[in-house]
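Quick log. Single chain, no ligands specified.
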Amino acid sequence: MRNRSYLKKGCTLAAVAACLALLALAPIPAGAQQEAAAAPNPSTGKWKVYRDDRYAFRLSYPPDSQVQTGRDHGYQYMRVHNFDPEPGGQNTMQPGEYHLEVLIFDHRLGHRMKSPCRELVRDAHQVRAGKVNALRGLAEQGDDPGATSFALCLQAGKVDVMVMATEQDPQGALANRILDGIRFGN
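-> predicted structure:
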């Protein structure tokens, strides 16, 4: 009797294993393959780290991003994005796309922000960003009417920094993940 019970369980397990093997060999419909390929998930994979030793800050960003640094009249900048608006085209971000801009106003170079942080950041609350205090909230609306811009702003003795992260998701999962990882005072 006991052997018959093991035999039944063995046959059932063999049937399940055979079904799983057949499912593994079955082709995936073309539509499902395209959906998986068309929906990149920047939150997966190992994120890259940008460090700026001069201004003592670092931030992490998705690996599919581009980084640009430079100087403009009145400030220095660092941009990270996976959104590239086409010249003359529609400048609307798609889900999963973002644009981050770090504006550095170095007082030693004569750079000044146009207003204090408390006037530039809406719905602001104080946070720690590494070794310094900063304000977190919403930034002024950007060029993309459907996007939401989140901000982190700090003012120190020799430098002011405004960080704006913009994305299509009004909850800002990706933008806020990037802002949460910014650290000043390495």
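Residues 1-40 have pLDDT under 50 and may be disordered.
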